[in-house]
Design goal:
The protein is α+β, with helices and mostly antiparallel strands. The protein has five helices and 13 strands. Bound molecules: manganese (II) ion.
C-alpha cells in the first residue's frame, strides 16, 4: 500500500467472532429507513446508517440525517477493543450496512469540522469483502484495498486532508457488509475556539 496514512490490520476479529457480530447487526440492530429529506430535497441513501455518540456530542452532518443514539453493549465492547488496540479514544461511531453490491458510498473525505484538523478514524468491517478505493487529491493516484471481515482499517491523521475514499458499486456481490467507523468528535466549545483563532 503506497498511502502511508493507511494501516490495515487483518483479522482484528477471528472468523467466529465476525459471524456472531454480523448476525447481531443483521438481526438485532434497529436500522432506520434510508429515505431522507434534506434542504427540501428527498433522497435515498444507497446504504443503511446509524450514528451513536457519547452524551453531549453534536455532529452536524449526521444530525441532519440521523438521530444520535446511545452506545449499547455490543458497540461499547467494539469501541473498547479498538481503543485498546490503537491507544486512542473515540466518542462516536457511524454504523453502515451495505445490503449488497448495489449499496455504495461515493467519493468523499471524512473531514467535517467537528472531527478537528487531523482526525484518526478506525474502520471495522464485517460480512462481505468490499473494495475500498482512495484517490489522492493532487496526484489523483488511486489505490484499491480489499476490506475483509474482521479487518480494521486505520485512517491516520492526514488521510482525510490528502485523499478521498469511496466504496464503489460491485454488481456481483449479493451479501451484506457491515462497517463501523469510530471517530473522535471534538466538543463544540473546542471547535468554536479553533475557529476564533483562525479569524
Ligand atoms: Mn468515509
Amino acid at each position: 500500500m503506497q498511502c502511508s496514512e493507511l494501516e490495515l490490520i487483518e483479522d482484528f476479529y477471528d472468523a467466529g467472532e465476525c459471524t456472531r457480530l454480523l448476525h447481531y447487526f443483521l438481526k438485532q440492530h434497529a436500522w432506520p429507513d434510508n429515505r431522507y429529506e434534506y434542504g427540501g430535497r428527498r433522497f435515498v441513501l444507497p446504504r443503511l446508517q446509524t450514528w451513536h455518540a457519547d452524551a453531549g456530542i453534536r455532529y452536524n452532518y449526521s444530525n441532519n440525517l440521523l438521530v444520535t443514539r446511545p452506545w449499547n453493549v455490543v458497540l461499547s465492547r467494539l469501541r473498547a477493543d479498538v481503543e485498546t488496540k490503537l491507544k486512542q479514544a473515540f466518542n462516536a461511531v457511524l454504523v453502515n450496512c451495505y445490503r449488497n453490491g448495489e449499496d455504495h458510498v461515493s467519493w468523499h473525505a471524512d473531514n467535517e469540522p467537528e472531527l478537528g484538523e487531523s482526525p484518526c478514524i478506525a474502520s471495522l468491517s464485517l460480512g462481505a469483502t468490499r473494495v475500498f478505493s482512495c484517490r489522492h487529491n493532487r496526484t489523483l493516484n488511486t489505490e484499491r484495498i480489499l476490506l475483509a471481515a474482521g479487518s480494521l482499517l486505520v485512517m491516520r491523521p492526514g488521510f482525510q486532508r490528502d485523499w478521498q475514499h469511496s466504496v464503489p458499486t460491485e454488481h456481483g456481490i449479493l451479501n451484506p457488509r457491515i462497517n463501523l467507523t469510530f471517530r473522535k468528535v471534538i466538543e463544540p466549545a473546542v471547535v468554536a475556539n479553533s475557529l476564533n483563532w483562525e479569524a
